[in-house]
Amino acid sequence: MPAERDSPDRSRPGDGRDDPTPPTRRGLSAALLAAVRSRPPAEIALVALPIPALLVAVSLAPGTDAWRLSLSTAGVFESRQALWTAFASSFVHTTPEHLVDNIANYWLLLAVAYPLSVVAGWRRRLLWATVAYLLVVPLASAWATLVALGGLTNAPTAGFSDVNSALLGYLVVVWFAALATETGGDGAEHGRTAIGVDARWSAVVALGSLALAYLAPSGVGYFPPLPAVGALFALSAALVAVALSAAAGRPRVVGLDLAPERELLYVTGGSVAAAGVVGSLVIVPFGSNVFAHLAGYVVGAAVPLGYVLADG
User: For residue 129, is it left (φ>0), alpha (ψ between -120 and 50) or beta?
Assistant: First the structure.
């Protein structure tokens, strides 16, 4: 997978460092509109339209109900039919409401992941990560689902939420990657530690969120808390945090002096990521497949973490 990156967007639209006036709703809306207009329309369309169009087309096509994956399937590679339904089931939905919900979640995630990718210089990386998610996550989530629930029932499973969970994992990492490009001026210092955030801290958050998923009670009875697994993820997060503190120092954002619009992007992105983790991995709605969500989230975070490590 290509590891090259675009030039980070260091522009600060509406930078008001010398203006203490707080941002207004109109000013923030104007900045958002200006940011959208600054990108090529074809690029915006490529991000927003093809996948929802594919999901709608599959939903309208006759016979696609047969593409759902049966939980009575012995394994992903049991037969050609099993392999096909393991893959295709991620692109079919049980009801129109199910379809609309997944498209809305896709747009919500991309609405923050895309501008953060622009800031981080990861536009092409977002494209390649999305391609990888579309090809790998359906099979990974089907495998995880069958390992956990296979043979318990012949109920079908379907939906794009596993790929959305992968985009959630991407969002967690790109949030840090974008923030890592911000500086507090020309080599600004805060005490003896440079102002800024090392993108590798995203691994701590990813591991911590997995610990939360396994430690907290979920909304579905088939996924009870697993303290041993949760403790393992928590310990891993703590060890990575200690190692990063020694190697790169603690994250320091006080003094970055970001433009209000840029701050809003980080606040919004962090809020969407936190709500996504809670809503898809912790407080899981009845009928949701938390194992598919977990598989998608792990793959989703692993790909951009590979980018971060490749950058050194």
Answer: alpha
